[in-house]
Amino acid sequence: MYQGKEGFNWFTGIVEDRNDPLFLNRVRVRIHGAHTQDKQMIATPDLPWSEVLMPSTSPSLSGLGTTTHGLVEGSSVMGFYRDGPEMQSAVIMGSFIGVPQHFYRIDETIDNFNGTRIFQEMPRTTKDGFNDPRLGTATDYNKKDYPDGTSPKHINRDYGLTLALDKSPRRDGETKGEVYPKREYLGTSDVNVLARDYDDKTYPVIKLVDGEGKQLVTKQASLVNRILGDLGGLSQAVEYGTPIRHIKPKYPFNHVHETESGHVLELDDTPDFERIHLYHRTGTRVEIDKDGSYVEKVVKDKYSVVLGDDTVTISGNVTVNITGDADVTVDGETKLTSKGDISMVAPKIKLNA
Length: 353
Hints:
Elements: E1 10-17, E2 27-31, E3 49-52, E4 76-81, E5 90-95, E6 103-111, E7 116-123, H1 221-227, E8 237-239, E9 242-244, E10 254-258, E11 264-268, E12 275-279, E13 285-288, E14 294-297
Parallel strand pairs: 3-5
Antiparallel strand pairs: 1-2, 1-4, 2-3, 4-5, 6-7, 8-9, 10-11, 11-12, 12-13, 13-14
């Protein structure tokens, strides 16, 4: 049989497992029309592995390019059966954006006697198929007769799911991951909130704070615009007490990539508000705003090592504030040239020749 000779058999489904033991980028998918939601009939570990078709921008060879997909438990996907009518070799082509709800299906009951139809929304649960099946810990799967564990009552096997929420990616400060879809995205688009039209209520604000959690403020307006900030950079910058908005993402121009643990990369092409923003889950961030200004925030330590020459040219003023000690060591000759006055203020000056 030649692949595709008899046409493609398409399908849609929900990813329920991505923890491929062979590291082959495969996922287990519960396919609409082929699999039931009843896990006593077919549990998540009994679903066949499906291959993921990577884009041509990745060679998928020898570790080159993007070698892992971005699918998670709960992703809605579409694909085709490579073996046609045999329907044993599934290939995932892509995923869908949607508007997830608190329920995953609607059951219909028809009363022919009374001529009525009753619709019931079935809430999401890890016990039913077509949902994220992850439990709190790996040992939770091994409860007696649990279909996704090692001792289900419907089939004889000695393996089950192992990826649980305590070992899944989690936000900074959290002890476990979150079941998908996320609660804050229920009833709204799966498109990242940062990529939608700007709204003070939806765009998350993360201000720059000092080590004690206090807001950094200065009376010098020129410095305030470099000290205050949020996830969007200078959008919370203040000059003479008046907020200045330097971000205003407009759908579909802000290209956002967010990871499960909270790392964010924004490439914003919104006209007159173009930005590049790299954000670490802890709050460390780098941003280039619409005018080319460079903003950097480091929440902990910073180390720079230059093994060659280093030249710094600054056309404007420089202000350095150090709340701790400063130690400068020069192995060679030191030369300091100033075309203006040099002022030094200290309670005591020590000179060691």
